[in-house]
Amino acid sequence: MPRILPALLFAALLLAAWEIYCATADVSPLVLPPPSGVLRALVVQRHQILHHAGSTILVAALGFSLSVSFACTASVALHFAPWLRRGAMPLLVASQTVPLVALAPLMILWFGFGLLPKVLLVILVTFFPILVSLLSGYARAPGAFVDLLSSMGAGRWQVFRRVTMPSARPAFFAGLRISATYAIVATIFAEYAGARAGIGIFILTAKNNFRADLVLAGVVVSAVLTLALLGALHIIDRTTARRFREASDATR
Amino acid sequence: MLRVEGLTIRAGSRVLVDDLALAIPDGRITCLIGPSGCGKSSVIKWLSGILDRSLEASGRAFLDGRPVPRPDPALAYQPQQDALFPWLTVAENAGLGLEMRGQSRRDARARVLPLFAPFGLEGCADAFPAQLSGGMRQRAAFLRTIVQDTRFVALDEPFSALDAVTRLRMQDWLCARLTETPRGVLMVTHDLHEATQMADRILVMSARPGRIVADIPLTTPRAARTEAALADTRSTLKSLLLKETS
Q: From residue A230, how far is each of A53, A72, A181 by CA, in Å?
């Protein structure tokens, strides 16, 4: 049985229960539209939704890519300079305690309604999980491997490149997956706080017009985008890690 | 000859190894045995330049009378576990030491491939370590060590992770390889049987603080090392070790 089948079956059951409840209970479609109503809204408004989704994808992809680059660079710096790590980590942890509700309007206030504030917000939200995952992955490099290379005369950079970095790979992808789930939500939140286009603005407009079906259509698009990003990461993981996968498969 | 003089290793105020001196002759197998915790592995790690940073060490190593750095390029180290990198193929693992010594990956591969058959690893060059048995993994680790063509080899309990039968096979196999291409070997072991089967000389360490308390040469040819022929040596070693642990 394909691994995705139980999830599809569960989702289908949930949607069927929701559809039946809307059809049988005395509930207004303005308050709770049935799944068929949400689907209808998605089809009718597809051009508008695609336009807004394009903007969201651009911000999320740009923010997420930059976040991964920054986190990788910062992780190397923090790994090689423990004093920098001791100085920067408390600030980085503190940055994660600032609520999005406060951060998003501030970004708009400081940087306007363009691409920059939204990309910055995505970076701020997704950077930390990737960084922490990488650092914890580096710390898990097997001591026997490090010893072996050191006995061969390898320097710190060679040890990092040949042992520390490959050892951190599973942790890195775990961090990427966590951050990916935040990336789309952070983008939508940034758009919600102020933007000209995007799923966040689409949802805000729909809410102001009391169009629950369109709000839920926006939620569906958000979920689909997040799943697509996770799927893309899964494909990258599998294609770039043929040897890692083969190695672990053989031990099962 | 590789010599160690005045080696003292401390963990804070505790002395683990005390003013130890030993010599590793070219082309001979020297086994270092002793009770658990006497500092056998610390000695071999110090010599290989990878002693834990939490330990303090003082002492000097000489190669043919000249002081040498640690890690000494004339010495190849093999840890207790096979330490094969799971993300590298067996050929890439085997050539790792050569790459670290400046060879390109292609040259290292060309150098290791002809040795796969003599090391019993035919057809495994592009396999991953997880696809090999314990004995094959250990042979791949030996290939990685031997192919570096160093005059000396430091082996830290190389068979400890293997089952009894594989261990016996691997001991014979390694002795045969070292007869073909002789190296000065310093091997740490806690196994009396292994030491008496393989060594040309056995150095016995005392309990902590570790120092050499006996130097026992084994003159019987390996082929003639039957249980009866080794009985006296094993009895001597056993009483020495029991004395140290009592």
A: 17, 19, 8
Tell me, yes or no, if the pTM score tops 0.90. no
DSSP letters, A47-112, are HHHHHHHHHHHHHHHHHHHHHHHHHHHHHHHHHH-HHHHHHHHHHHHHHTTS-HHHHHHHHHHHHT
Residues of B in contact with A245 (CB under 8 A): none
How distant is the Cα of A70 from the closest Cα of chain B, in angstroms?
Answer: 25
Q: Out of A36-50, A136-150, A190-204, B84-98, which region has the weakest mean confidence (pLDDT)? A: A190-204
Interface contact B71-A243, CB threshold 8 A: no
pLDDT tens digits, one per residue of B189-203: 988 888 998 899 999
pLDDT tens column, B110-141 = 999 998 988 888 899 999 998 998 888 988 99
Does residue B178 lie in a domain region?
A: no
Q: Is the CB of A170 inside 8 Å of chain B's CB atoms? A: no
Give how far A179 is from chain B: nearest CA, Å.
Answer: 25
- Tally of domains within chain B: 1
Q: How far apart (Å, rounded) are the C-alpha atoms in residues A228 and A61?
A: 11
pLDDT over 50 (residue A247): no
Q: Is residue B9 part of a domain?
A: no
Closest chain B C-alpha to A241 CA, distance in angstroms: 9
> Is B229 contained in some domain?
no
Contact B85 A163 (CB under 8 A): yes
Cα–Cα dist A64/A119, whole Å: 8
Residue A154 contacts B, CB cutoff 8 Å: yes
Residue A80 lies in a domain: yes
* B140–chain A Cβ distance below 8 A for any pair: no
- In chain A, the residue whose alpha carbon lies closest to the alpha carbon of B90 is A247
Cβ <8 Å between B130 and A153? no
Question: What domain range includes position A228?
Answer: 48-240
Interface test with A, best of B41, B88, B100, B152 (most A CBs within 10 A): B100
Dist. CA B50–CA A75, nearest whole Å: 25
Distance of alpha carbon A137 from alpha carbon A165, whole angstroms: 8
Q: How many domains does chain A have?
A: 1
Residue at B101 is within a domain: yes
Distance from CA of A238 to the nearest CA of B (A): 14
Residue A36 lies in a domain: no
Please indicate whether, in this complex, the C-beta atoms of B129 and A247 are within 8 angstroms of each other: yes
Report yes or no: B9 and B57 within 8 Å, Cβ to Cβ: yes
Range of the domain at B100: 83-149
